[in-house]
Amino acid sequence: MSYSLLELIGNTPLVESNILNPNPNVRLFFKLEGHNPGGSVKDRAALNMIRSGLERGDFDKHSKLIEATSGNTGIALAMIAGVYGLEIELVMPENSTVERVQTMRAYGAKVTLTPADVGIEGARDYAEGKVRNEGFTMINQFANNDNWRAHYQTTGPEIWGDTEQRITHFVSSMGTTGTIMGTSTYLKEKNPKVQIVGVQPKDGAKIPGIRKWPEAYLPKIFDKNKVDDIMEVSEEEAADMARRLAKEEGIFSGMSSGGAATAALRLAATLDSGVVVSIVCDRGDRYLSSGLFG
């Protein structure tokens, strides 16, 4: 059986922790989103945002698309825009890893780097200026309902089915918050008792892919009522756990996945019983130049 590239997005593996899980009465699973063709969970949202936008007529092949990104969404958008024959400019802080920049350019996107000291907020401001002044169309992952709906339609049902409807806790790092919003919405519909745990960096911690947003930049798709608890992790915890996931579980991922796993293990240790699922949002190969692994 053969598939088109876009048909390979989703249906990622769910693997059980055999080493790191601290509690024999709890089953802990990692959902390996790096198995998507673009290498991250963001393939899901990017596909839904582009496909739905085209279907609605929000943009077409003559449009100039733009999006601010910290990395994974940009790679996914570059890949999928290329498949659809769309022109897209991706805006990132200049301290983004070289692997991410080069991957986006390989897929045919224009990449613009903004000053590191203004972070992703500065990249968002730049993109919004191009929309106002130069006729660009923004994908706007932070306010685009097609972002979270992708996870309502795919990630949530996959987890529900693969755990045989036994999931008790879902753990996800929070960036745009699309993953946690859509998955929470689906799982809560199936079983309101499922607990949703979001992961944020501690004050001052810099963990790629996880943010504690200033109020003015809080994603419009975020609904605090869909998250039961928020755990904070340090930069050191996230990095150490990413290395442990690779070395001890054979799961090669980035720091945001390490942050989520840190929270999931912390949670599992407190439970009498349960089934915990933690998102491993990407692959570790796009962090090799960052020094995370050596």
From TrEMBL:
CDD domains, per database record: CBS_like
Keywords: Amino-acid biosynthesis, Cysteine biosynthesis, Pyridoxal phosphate, Transferase
UniProt keyword Transcription present: no
Listed InterPro entries: Cys_synth, Cys_Synth/Cystath_Beta-Synth, CysM, P-phosphate_BS, TrpB-like_PALP, TrpB-like_PALP_sf
Residues modified to N6-(pyridoxal phosphate)lysine: K42
Any GO molecular function: cysteine synthase activity
Cofactor dependence: pyridoxal 5'-phosphate
Alphabetical list of SUPFAM superfamilies matching this protein: Tryptophan synthase beta subunit-like PLP-dependent enzymes (SSF53686)
Biological-process GO terms, alphabetical: cysteine biosynthetic process from serine
Pathway annotation: Amino-acid biosynthesis; L-cysteine biosynthesis; L-cysteine from L-serine: step 2/2
Family: Belongs to the cysteine synthase/cystathionine beta-synthase family.
Protein name: Cysteine synthase
Organism, scientific name: Aggregatimonas sangjinii
Gene name for this UniProt entry: cysM
